[in-house]
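Posting this for the archive.
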Amino acid sequence: MHKYIETNEILNEVCEGLNKEKELGVDLECENNMHHYGAYLSLIQISDSKSNYIIDILKITEFQPLIDVLENKKILKIFHGVDFDFRMLNHQLKCHPKNIFDTQVAAQLLGKEKIGLGDLIEEYFNVKKIKKFQKADWTRRPLTEGMLDYASGDTIYLIRLKDIMRKELAEKSVWADQEFLDLEKRDWPYEEGTFNTVRGYAHLTPKERAIFRRLYTLRDNLAKQVDKPVHFVINNKTLIEFTIKPPKEWSKLRGVHPIVKRNAKLFSEEVSKGNKEELYIPEKEIKHFSHKERELFRNLGELQIKIGTKLGIKPHLVMNKEQIIDIVINGNLNSLRDWQKKLVEEDWKKIK
């Protein structure tokens, strides 16, 4: 069972109770450029030891009580895979959750191959997650009972899952806690893709890049007008193709949103303007390793694999590529967390 919250008054009452809890399971449902334009929160699901709450972010206007709960250091918040969730909370609510346990990180440290929440729920509780609503439009109202059941279907397991995984982690619990603290301290900015990150952009000529930037911006503005994901208007691959070989008649195109045809003149004008411009890609300053640094980089990569294999975890958990590069450049292990340092420091002394 779940309690659906859609008013500020009820949210405030619920949060007063949640602030007295020791631990909470938390999950989000978002619109992420799947059915509408942009990415934003739709629901926040929270479970304590007795109750399950579904908070309708599209109807709530006063979020501070909820933010206070998520940032309360006395309450353990259990998430699964915080990356996107934390970016959305930061982007929309300026909220930075404190005191967290990430069951996905725990699964990685336990050496599990399948680390999805559905996989873990099936493994530990023999419950198969219903996939019917994975791609549902979470902005539609009213939400069906099936959608609400699906939304609360994850958080009800998170507290029990944490209890089991904490025991299984044993001595690795110290590792996990350091990872969780690192996640808590990060900034978690949310960034939409830009024109110069689209696949194929780098292979365009300077003039084609100028055209593409103009078409990309126009498409974005039109997508916002009709409240549709940009790929519903024109997908990136097609936009690149139209950049290289612009259509003679934009009004007669197939496979694009009708708003493109209605604004055929604007597309033609942007192509004409782009033809008079050139856009160059700034050259990146490339750090070239010396022979000794290349050898150290290779040795650290081998050490990463060796220790990961021995522990039964993915090598990047021992130290990732960015950490290895930092070690090579700075000649120390300062980029590693304490648990990682203890794993590699003896071998590091031999190969540095």
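The beta strands are 3-5, 23-32, 39-47, 52-56, 76-79, 100-102. The first helix runs from residue 8 to 18.
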